[in-house]
Queue: 2 jobs
Job 1
Amino acid sequence: MALELHQITAATYLLAAVVAVLGLVVPAPRASRVAVGALGLGLLLHTLAFLSLHAQAQPPAFTELPMALSLMAWLGTLSFLLLLLVVRGAGLVVLVAPLAFAGSFAESLALPGVVDDLTRASPLWSHLHVLLASAGLALLGLAGAAGVLYVVHHRAIKAKRAAALRLPLPSLETLDRVNALALTLGFLLLSLGVLTGVAWVEAAEQRMWPGGWHANATLAAWLIYAVVVGARFGAHQGARQSALSSVAGFVVLVVAVVGAGMLA
Amino acid sequence: MNLLLLGMSHRTAPLELRERYAVTDLAGPLEKLAGSPEVEEAVLLSTCNRVEVLVLTRTLEAARVRLRSFIERDLAGADAPPPSALDEALYEYVDRGAVRHVFRVACSVDSMVVGEPQILGQVKDAYRAAVEGGACGPILGRLYQRAFATAKRVRNETRIAERPVSVARVAVELATQIFETLHDKSALLIGAGEMTELALETLRARGLSAVRVANRTRARAADLAARFEASAWGLSELPEILPRSDVVLTSIGGHEPLLTVPLLERALEERRGRPMFVIDIGVPRNVDPAVNGLDNVYLYDLDDLSGVAESNAEERRREVERAESIVEEEQQRFDGWLSALAAVPTIRNLRARAEAIRNRELERTLGRLALGEPERAAVDALTRAIVNKILHAPISRLRDEAEREQGLAILEVARSLFALDGSGPDEAGPDENGGDEDA
């Protein structure tokens, strides 16, 4: 049942992505609202899929990459839909929906295995780490998505091409607000994720820093984000530079998490 | 019955001519027109771009003459040109052509600025005035309801009205692409000019809150500032007010750029990177074009805005074809309804004739039989059912066929076959013994 629900979830996210992309290409401004609706439905199904998984006899391994990505997709979608309550950024769905699909896709292929020894040694820290880091990644992904759209929209307005101006994208100010909000919260959660990760390794293996690709690349990404947040709020960096930095930071973070997961 | 439309528009008459025939109060002229014996129903539309009269008439030629005299005498102002001036300006549409024209006008396909939304409101006003004046009856009422529905379809199914085509509206749309809302934004108007003022008014209509006006001296700025409930500033104070302005509209004389890169760089620094939208309508330009290279400044000059407006207008023109096919579809639907209307008298006559025969035969039969009340009622119901069942198929077929092209011919055949035109045999039909002419 859980696997089928994950598959339906991924299909719903894909539908939202297709509608959103078509809406941008045609362009049809109303399509983004339909896509947001489909994304909301996907989130509901995703929640049911997680609940169904939780009800299984064996607890799922949230530390496995597909499961962690799926959790990120769920948290990212939830954050986006909550964000829409305060900003008019439905156009962002054109990047959020494909990311949600990508995050949930791997999980829809096979259910996660059972928890490993490391997790079993310290279940509280491991789950806290995965939850906080995933939420941080999801929000930083949202900041990156807003950054990408900001750069695209900024170039369209600067280039003064009527066709580019017809793209149904959120205003630059909206994208910048989403970027700033998601960056702040995402960085905070990522920081807590790193700290709980350290605590997890300390509790399970009695060492401060685990080393390895994942830990080192995550630290590098955290440092990049620390600079980005500092530049943004301390040195009043411009919106475009902040957008570009968010994209760069997210790329490093994806390499750190997904790359490490693939290498593992 | 015919539909006849006579009028002039921006396509056939210059403004100097149109304005002589434009009326603001539709009730008076409509009353005169509706009182004419040639006119069954009438609607008068008068806007700055067109004056049109649509009537439903039983006498087409007489109505044609009446409409011409109505425009020449009743609509013409005191200084109207001689009637011959109208020869080239007036156009005429009859029946289907008139329906199509009304639909095209309501859909803004025939407008000077294709897709502009005002025309639909003006057509609705004209219709309302005709209804209130008792000049609009069921046929024109239905026609205008279909025209409004067609306009709604065109607006929903095409992009004919999606993008702005005036410089002022393009500026506003660009502002909304940069800023999430204009309610907390402030504008700076430098100099004065019709287009900048129009753009400012449009921006204010979209919620722009604070306005500052700057001119060479504070005194010169004061007049304009009073009009916009704004504060007045001198050009020397630009470094002070630029950082506080989100939207800058400039149109001031002078050969040297007024807003330079260093000036805006300083403003941006104070604004902590918040974006600025600069609209330069000045000729020669008031803003150094290199300013557009600054990260958070979006500079549009008159050519840029006109280019976007023209591209949007081109997009609208491409949508006209789709709008025309919707008009065509709706026109056919209305034609069908109108044709079906022609079948109503035939169907009514057919029913009346059948009912008369039934009643006569029923009376004759019941007179010979000594039946009680329940039996009489049963025989009455039986004959009624037989007549209804026999007539059901031909009446349905008549209704369907009337909507088609050969509808009128079929109606003629039906009238002849059932002797509804009074030229057939006696209504009594075959004798009571059931014999007919062949027997």
Job 2
Amino acid sequence: MYSQRVLEAYGGLLTYGLDMTQYMLRLAYLVVAALAISACQNEQVISRQSFVFGTIVEVKIRAADRVVANTAIDQLFARFDTLHSAWHAWKPGDMADVNAQFATDSWFSPPSSVLSLLKMSKQLFTTSSGLFNPAIGELIALWGFHADELPDSPPEHAEIVTFIEQLPNMDDVEIEGGRVRSQHSHLSIDAGGLAKGYAVDLGIKLLQKHGIENALVNAGGDLCGIGDRGDRKWRVGIRHPDKPGVLASINLQDGDCVFTSGDYERGYDYQGRHYHHIIDPRSGYPADKAVSVTVLHPDGALADAASTALLIAGPNDWQDVARNMGIENVLMVDHRGRLHMTAPMQARIRIEDDQTREIIVTPSS
Amino acid sequence: MIRNFTIVRPKIGDALVLLLCVLLIPVSVMAVKQNPAKATAVKITSSDSTPRTYPLHPDRTLNIEGRLGISVIEIVDGSARFAASPCAGQQCVLSGWHRHSGDGMACLPNRVAMTLVAQRDDFDGMNY
């Protein structure tokens, strides 16, 4: 009788009127639920960095099984290393072989990873109205960006003009089944504006194959996330292109990728001017209409290519290009420090820099 | 089951606790808002070793072994910089001092990277 009273006192409403068997059953449920909750809490965020893909790659995984997570990360780093050598624009590898074969004007079968890049590049070239043009490898080389050490001065204007007059583009790459060919004598593929995005997409897929549902893969500042961190969503800071600190932040939805292209990336200074590696295929000179463009989209390869194309397009023309490429979330910083963004992007980001003066929002079409 | 619920008259102690709570609101808001961007430590990754985190106080000089040689990272008054690095471009050295959480710089040829972090984990990833 005494124990029954104690149970009622502790169990409260739940046990009122229940007999001992029912009570024990409920207690068992509670124990199981408590164990399940503590198992969730055992999930920890594993974070590892490695110098792969020519940059520093950071992978964060929230998972209960450390061994599984670490195995998956090892494989991801190894895959990134393989892809980096395969797609490298100027070092020996699959892409260099493919470019050499293009020079022969005859049909050949490229390795499958390069074929996928070529197919994506053709499509992105079309949807970006030619602003994303990976066929201009020779021009990038002319600017000196196909070397570990950058040059002291830009190329002669006449050389650039000559190249632009017979500009190769992705329409010059013909694809039939698994075979490809180019009859343009100056075509050389530099997939730098797309490769990192595609690699991060493949990296996320690899993690998912290992059963990982919560991860953040950051390849030198361009990243994709799946799931969340557990206590909150993955939170990403967008670094300010003009000064130290953070410009804005985004909480990632499951599968979101954030890619930024900016004029502060790889480049060199000559006579007070900065020459960076994102070349406008229309002028042959580094894109100079905007400072940086950030694109948020679930497809990393598309986000990567779009951030490049929109940086080249600049503040006056980016809207049409974004629409054609199927991009809704765009943030652009122009040379006057103004932020241009789409309405959906404004709803997703939080401005962290209190000195931001002017924000121009484009309503969604 | 609560069967004998009676209303207890508030006493002076309850009022004091309540007052203390109200007074603490602005203090806690200040504490959270205070300098969220100021980094407190620098996380250094080199080659394939595990990253190590060093506080930004006191001042010190770190010699980090990389693939090509030693990168020298200097910590002075809450800021960190690459003081020297065995690479051709010297971009990491030229980038100067870093003090904001989320800032970072790498000497990729030497495979040494540093990221500034704050006590509070503001961001899981930096986009640039």
